[in-house]
């Protein structure tokens, strides 16, 4: 349709011609058919009419033939009879009357149809019977009246119908001279004759066919008369189908004329003529010899078919002509057919002209409509594009504006800082608090702006992921640790639920930690904001992309590697989940991490769930009294999508309060292979251990990760799992306030294979403890000893290098069986009473059973004297692992020594995890620890810090390790690290190099850095010198065998210098240090603006960061922190 | 005696403020002053000394480079010197010198000889002015110290 329309618009004439031609052809065909059919029909009809006409003619002939048959014969017979009666030659009238009249009457009454019987004597005597208007009369000529022959008087007298006697009156009439007539003489001559003529009855008579026979003696004639009227009536009454019939005698007497051409009809010399009688030329004559088979003649401009023949009726020859007008039958059909043909031709000519015109008109209309629609579509598209452009511009404008506002805000903050530093403002004064308030407000404002900026960044597609390596488990813990105190203030617990611990298995991942943190922060802060009571649980687990389950049930009881192998063989094509573990460790580098943030807050109404992810949308009912732009979840969604995942609100079970956000992200894991035997033995790094407990056929992922690694399960642990329930191993008693935390913790500990007893209320603690451990602990201990013979094989703790230390716990563990670990939330009841209960219980224990108490949310050091541990931060993740590690199943030691041992171990681990293992370092660490070890102060410190070994602490320890090996005797610095570090001296103890050709600047910079706590500043005047210094240091270090220490913690590099400039120098240094596998942070210092081309060049040259020349302290801090975070990862 | 010190302190304060207000100095100088403490009581003086030495040296360099009698004018040499001077001046907070250096640099990049020469002269005048002003200030300081007073912190709004 469209094509036709297109063609139409492009070549209308061609289309027109084609269409016209087609219609024309059709017309021609129909005309041809029409002609042929009409022809045959006409022919048929013509032959039919022909037949019909000839049969009509035949019919007429028949009528003529049979209407008066054998009249001649009757006359002859009658004449014979009369002959016989006439004996005398001379007969008088009387004789005739006596002798002949009866015979005549007999004949009159017997011969059918006869209307006149007469005897005419050659003398003129006459006797005749005739029917005159149904009355028989006799006409006779009496000789008496004229005896001399001459004139006879004719009399007419009625006759008796039966007898034939004359009755009634006679009337006289003028005689006719019959003997002189042609027919009389012809009869005398020829014996017989016939003619058509009027009867003898004078005025009464009608026209008759008269047959005349003379008597043998020629004395007279006998004649019989038959009425002509019978024949004419018959012929007139017959239907001639529009035909015209003319019949006449030879002498021109017209007998029948039936037709429309009456007026102009006349007979001329035996032929029929039409026209004026006087004018023979103008009239049309039909020759009388025309055959019976049609003859065409045109009379008065109309054609006639003429049939003519001679018909003999009772001896009288009659000529007749039948004419059929040519109007009817085939001619009419032909006429009509021709008319229709003309019509057809006209239509055939007109249609090709008209129809395509109409068609084209319609098509044109359709094409116009389509064009119109297209135009509208294009307009719409343009409008959409314009709208999009506008929106983009708007976003960009917002981004620019936000950026500027942020700049101004930074200015304000700086000014306020300056004001506060001013001595006029006394700390604590009203002005100071107000200023502080202002700063808080500004921070809020900046946060707000950042979210707007993020939004516009995402919208304009400029947001990109920054890939870096980080520890996912630690990140999660950090986030929760951050929000825990805030939430606890409201009485809401924040629980980390690591499910199967699969996060630990893949905790070292590569991805954008900042954005992931942003997502989680947003969700968790929302949860905290909107939850008034209950708990917030954050669940996380890893799974293969697309997979659903992470725990594999193996139904086979055979177990072990063989079974696994068989499984993988059999299930190659079938069940995917069975081979999941194999696959995930073998080929998958991309792991899907699923997070759930589940709160018990107000929840989000069903109908709002879709729109909360749209920007600027807040759930009004719940957001009352809460701040925010409503951008948070929109950003979160964009970020999640950026990381290849999806966020949604999952449905909670009926009756459960709150909202559950679930999202997944794809991250690249760095755990490239399943944990090898080597790894297990060395117990070096974070990572999952694959433990198979064959008897149960249950595969558990006890992946214990983070920097705090729990040992591989010992064989004894396996025995414990598989042995009868009576046998006692370690037991954990949980007394936690929050139900969710209780559940999660219980589940987690159970998944590690440790028995857990949950006490719901603090009042039940005492009872529960008695029930559990009150009965003869001795017995259970003994049994334990027997049932766990393999406990001797408990593997080493820590690193192989520290033999002396790890020997002790190993030996002791031989004589040790059960350990009771009490995890008590101090908020669950009055602390003192709880403490008493625990004390009583502890006293009641037999020797050999150790009891370990972990107090949560309790800062008092009361318990720590007994080796108890107090933990202020939420117990989950790595901290929980740390606590569990004290159990013998995980290589823990006897409780009494636990704090010290634990601490030492953790220290070792820190140093080893953060720096790569090097014997020399460990030695350094060891010595340092030994120096500090003998002190109660140490114990106290551990009480507070050991249970919260966050990244901060570990960093601090690493720092202390570093400072410890420094040759310069600044022990004060070292001590300082143990204190909360002074925030203005955050560069304390660092060694830096300042490269600047400008002495003034280098002097100022040195001064500034020293103010920030830098211990040593090496000034350098040129790039060459800097490179030389670095390479010298490195070679020197290599000789000493410790290339891992950096010559300088940071290098501040001026960019523009005569000779070798900053970029060049940096490149050189990078080249040099590459050989040694170290990386010295180099910070560019330049007079250019940050964000300028030069600033970008510095990063390209290999520098780590960029600073403005005046060395703003805040900026410097930020930069250093950034570098630090990069280094530690 | 006390009144004398107070007067001196007042004078010092006013003088310092005037220096800021006239645009000789900026925040960087304040920063510099903050860096001076008991450990290095003459820090500011040292830095300034270095700065003025630099000025003499650099201006000499530039004058030589801009000297037409030696033949071609080496604008790149001038540019490098200006950049250094700009860096130095900004690190001591010599605002006017710094501002001049910026203009100077632009002329230099445009290779405008006339502009360069004019700027060089202005810079020469400017740094000398600054030097005298600062000397005055230090003299005042000294007087205060000698009189047994404390050099006051000057707030610049």
UniProtKB/TrEMBL annotation, chain A:
Xref: Gene3D superfamilies: 1.10.287.130, 3.40.50.2300, Histidine kinase-like ATPase, C-terminal domain (3.30.565.10)
The organism's place on the tree of life at top rank: Eukaryota
UniProt-recorded Gene Ontology molecular function terms: protein histidine kinase activity
Residue ranges constituting the Response regulatory domain according to the UniProt record: 991-1124
EC number: 2.7.13.3
Reactions this protein catalyses: ATP + protein L-histidine = ADP + protein N-phospho-L-histidine
Source organism (scientific name): Cardamine amara subsp. amara
Modification type 4-aspartylphosphate: residues: 1054
Protein name, entry field: histidine kinase
Keyword Transmembrane helix: yes
Automatic annotation (TrEMBL), chain B:
Swiss-Prot/TrEMBL domain comment: Histidine-containing phosphotransfer domain (HPt) contains an active histidine that mediates the phosphotransfer.
PROSITE patterns: HPT
Main location (coarse class): cytoplasm
Pfam hit, one: Hpt
GO CC annotation: cytosol; nucleus
GO biological process: cytokinin-activated signaling pathway; phosphorelay signal transduction system
Assigned keywords, A-Z: Acetylation, Cytokinin signaling pathway, Cytoplasm, Nucleus, Phosphoprotein, Two-component regulatory system
Annotated positions of the Phosphohistidine modification: 83
Function comment: Functions as a two-component phosphorelay mediators between cytokinin sensor histidine kinases and response regulators (B-type ARRs). Plays an important role in propagating cytokinin signal transduction.
Domain of life from the UniProt record: Eukaryota
SUPFAM superfamilies assigned to the protein according to its UniProt record, in alphabetical order: Histidine-containing phosphotransfer domain, HPT domain (SSF47226)
InterPro entries assigned to the protein according to its UniProt record, in alphabetical order: AHP1-5/YPD1, HPT_dom_sf, Sig_transdc_His_kin_Hpt_dom
GO molecular function: histidine phosphotransfer kinase activity; protein histidine kinase binding
Source organism of the structure: Cardamine amara subsp. amara
Protein name: Histidine-containing phosphotransfer protein
Lineage: Eukaryota, Viridiplantae, Streptophyta, Embryophyta, Tracheophyta
Domain HPt: 40-148
Location(s) in or outside the cell: Cytoplasm, Cytosol; Nucleus
């Amino acid at each position: 349709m469209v094509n036709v329309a297109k063609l139409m618009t492009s070549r209308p004439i061609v289309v027109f011609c084609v269409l016209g031609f087609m219609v024309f052809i059709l017309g021609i065909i129909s005309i041809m058919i029409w002609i042929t059919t009409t022809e045959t029909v006409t022919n048929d009809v013509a032959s039919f009419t022909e037949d019909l006409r000839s049969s009509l003619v035949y019919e007429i002939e028949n009528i003529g033939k049979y209407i008066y048959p054998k009249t001649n014969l009757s006359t002859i017979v009658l004449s014979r009879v009369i002959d016989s009666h006439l004996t005398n030659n001379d007969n008088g009238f009387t004789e005739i009357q006596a002798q002949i009249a009866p015979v005549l009457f007999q004949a009159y009454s017997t011969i059918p149809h006869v209307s006149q019987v007469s005897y005419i004597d050659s003398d003129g005597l006459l006797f005749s019977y005739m029917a005159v208007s149904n009355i028989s009369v006799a006409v006779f000529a009496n000789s008496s009246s004229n005896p001399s022959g001459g004139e006879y008087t004719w009399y007419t007298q009625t006759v008796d119908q039966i007898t034939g006697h004359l009755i009634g009156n006679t009337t006289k009439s003028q005689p006719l001279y019959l003997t002189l007539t042609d027919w009389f003489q012809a009869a005398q001559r020829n014996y017989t004759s016939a003619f058509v003529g009027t009867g003898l009855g004078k005025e009464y008579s009608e026209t008759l066919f008269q047959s005349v026979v003379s008597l043998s003696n020629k004395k007279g004639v006998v004649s019989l008369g038959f009425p002509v009227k019978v024949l004419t009536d018959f012929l007139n009454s017959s239907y001639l189908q529009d035909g015209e019939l003319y019949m006449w005698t030879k002498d021109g007497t017209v007998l029948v004329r039936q037709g429309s051409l009456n007026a102009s009809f006349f007979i001329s010399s035996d032929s029929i003529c039409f026209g004026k009688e006087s004018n023979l030329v103008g009239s049309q004559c039909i020759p009388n010899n025309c055959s019976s088979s049609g003859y065409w003649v045109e009379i008065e401009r109309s054609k006639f078919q003429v049939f003519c023949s001679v018909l003999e009726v009772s001896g009288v020859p009659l000529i007749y002509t039948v004419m059929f007008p040519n109007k009817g039958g085939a001619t009419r059909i032909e006429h009509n057919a021709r008319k229709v043909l003309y019509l057809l031709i006209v239509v055939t000519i007109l249609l090709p002209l008209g129809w395509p015109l109409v068609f084209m008109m319609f098509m044109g209309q359709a094409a116009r409509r389509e064009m119109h629609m297209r135009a509208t579509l294009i307009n719409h598209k343009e409008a959409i594009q314009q709208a999009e452009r506008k929106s983009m511009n708007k976003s960009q404008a917002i981004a620019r504006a936000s950026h500027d506002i942020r700049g101004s805000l930074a200015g304000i903050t700086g000014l306020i800082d300056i004001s506060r530093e001013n001595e006029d403002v006394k700390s604590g004064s009203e002005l100071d608090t107000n200023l502080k308030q202002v700063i808080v407000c500004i921070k809020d404002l900046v946060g707000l702006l950042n979210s707007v900026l993020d939004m516009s960044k995402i919208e304009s597609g400029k947001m990109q992921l920054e890939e870096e390596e980080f520890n996912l488990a630690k990140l999660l813990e950090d986030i929760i640790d951050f929000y825990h105190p805030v939430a606890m203030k409201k009485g809401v617990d924040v629980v980390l639920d690591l499910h199967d611990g699969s996060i630990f298995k893949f905790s070292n991942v590569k991805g954008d930690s900042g954005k992931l943190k942003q997502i989680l922060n947003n969700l968790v802060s929302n949860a905290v904001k909107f939850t008034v009571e209950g708990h917030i649980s954050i669940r996380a687990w890893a799974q293969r992309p697309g997979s659903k389950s992470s725990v594999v049930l193996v139904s086979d009881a055979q177990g072990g590697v063989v079974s696994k192998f068989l499984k993988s063989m059999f299930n190659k094509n079938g069940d995917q989940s069975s081979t999941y573990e194999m696959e995930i460790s073998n080929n998958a580098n991309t792991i899907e991490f699923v997070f759930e943030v589940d709160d018990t807050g107000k929840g989000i109404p069903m109908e709002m769930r879709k729109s909360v992810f749209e920007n600027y949308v807040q759930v009004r009912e719940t957001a009352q009294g809460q701040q925010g732009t409503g951008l948070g979840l929109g950003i979160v969604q964009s970020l999640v999508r950026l990381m290849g995942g999806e966020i949604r609100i999952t449905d909670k079970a009926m009756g459960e309060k709150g909202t559950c956000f679930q999202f997944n992200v794809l991250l690249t894991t760095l755990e490239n292979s399943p944990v090898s035997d080597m790894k297990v033995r060395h117990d070096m790094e974070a990572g999952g251990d694959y433990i198979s407990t064959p008897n149960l056929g249950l595969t558990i992922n006890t992946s214990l990760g983070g920097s705090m690694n729990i040992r591989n399960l010992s064989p004894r642990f396996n025995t414990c799992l598989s042995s009868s329930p009576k046998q006692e191993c370690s037991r954990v008693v949980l007394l936690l306030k929050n139900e969710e935390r209780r559940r999660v913790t219980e589940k987690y500990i159970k998944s590690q294979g440790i028995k857990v007893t949950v006490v719901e209320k603090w009042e039940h603690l005492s009872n529960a403890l008695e029930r559990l451990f009150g009965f003869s602990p001795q017995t259970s201990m003994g049994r334990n000893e027997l049932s766990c013979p393999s406990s001797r094989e408990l593997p080493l703790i820590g690193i192989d290098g520290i033999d002396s230390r790890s020997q002790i716990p190993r030996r002791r563990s031989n004589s040790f069986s059960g350990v009771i670990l009490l995890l008590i939330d101090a908020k669950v009841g009055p602390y003192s009473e709880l403490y008493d209960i625990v004390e009583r219980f502890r006293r009641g224990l037999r020797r050999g059973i150790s009891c370990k108490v972990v107090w949560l949310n309790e800062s008092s050091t009361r318990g720590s004297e007994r080796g108890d541990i107090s933990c202020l931060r939420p117990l989950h993740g790595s901290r929980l692992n740390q606590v569990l590690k004290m159990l013998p199943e995980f290589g823990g030691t006897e409780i009494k020594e636990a704090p010290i041992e634990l601490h030492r171990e953790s220290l070792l681990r820190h140093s080893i995890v953060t720096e790569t293992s090097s014997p020399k370092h460990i030695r350094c660490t060891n010595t340092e620890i030994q120096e500090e070890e003998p002190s109660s102060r140490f114990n106290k410190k551990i009480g507070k810090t050991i249970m919260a070994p966050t990244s901060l602490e570990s960093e601090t320890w690493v720092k202390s390790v570093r400072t410890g090996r420094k040759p310069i005797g600044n022990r004060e610095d070292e001590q300082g690290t143990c204190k909360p570090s002074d925030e203005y001296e955050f560069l304390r103890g660092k060694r830096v190099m300042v490269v600047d050709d400008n002495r003034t600047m280098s002097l100022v910079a040195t001064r500034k850095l020293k103010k920030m706590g830098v211990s040593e500043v090496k000034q350098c005047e040129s790039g060459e010198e800097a490179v030389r210094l670095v390479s010298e240091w490195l070679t020197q270090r290599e000789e000493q065998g410790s290339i891992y220490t950096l010559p300088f913690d940071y290098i501040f590099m001026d960019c523009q210098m005569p000779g070798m400039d900053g970029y060049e120098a940096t490149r050189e240094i990078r080249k040099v240090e590459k050989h040694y596998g170290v990386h010295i942070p180099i910070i560019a210092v330049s007079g250019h603006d940050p964000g300028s081309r030069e600033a970008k060049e510095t990063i390209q040259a290999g520098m780590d960061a960029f600073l403005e020349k005046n060395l703003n302290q805040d900026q410097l801090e930020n930069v250093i922190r950034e570098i630090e975070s990069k280094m530690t990862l | 005696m006390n009144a004398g010190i107070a007067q001196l302190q007042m004078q010092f304060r006013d003088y310092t403020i005037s220096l800021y207000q006239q645009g000789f100095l900026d925040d960087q100088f304040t920063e510099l002053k903050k860096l001076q403490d008991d450990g290095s009581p003459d820090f500011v003086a040292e830095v300034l000394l270095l700065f003025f030495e630099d000025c003499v040296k650099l201006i000499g360099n530039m004058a030589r480079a801009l000297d037409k009698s030696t033949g071609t004018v080496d604008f790149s040499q001038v540019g490098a010197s200006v950049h250094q001077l700009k860096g130095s001046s900004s690190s001591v907070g010599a605002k006017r010198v710094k501002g001049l250096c910026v203009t100077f640099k632009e002329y230099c990049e445009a290779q405008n000889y006339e502009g360069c020469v004019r700027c060089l002269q202005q810079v020469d005048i400017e740094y000398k002015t600054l030097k005298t002003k600062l000397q005055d200030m230090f003299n005042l300081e000294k007087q205060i110290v000698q009189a047994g007073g404390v050099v006051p912190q000057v707030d610049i709004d």
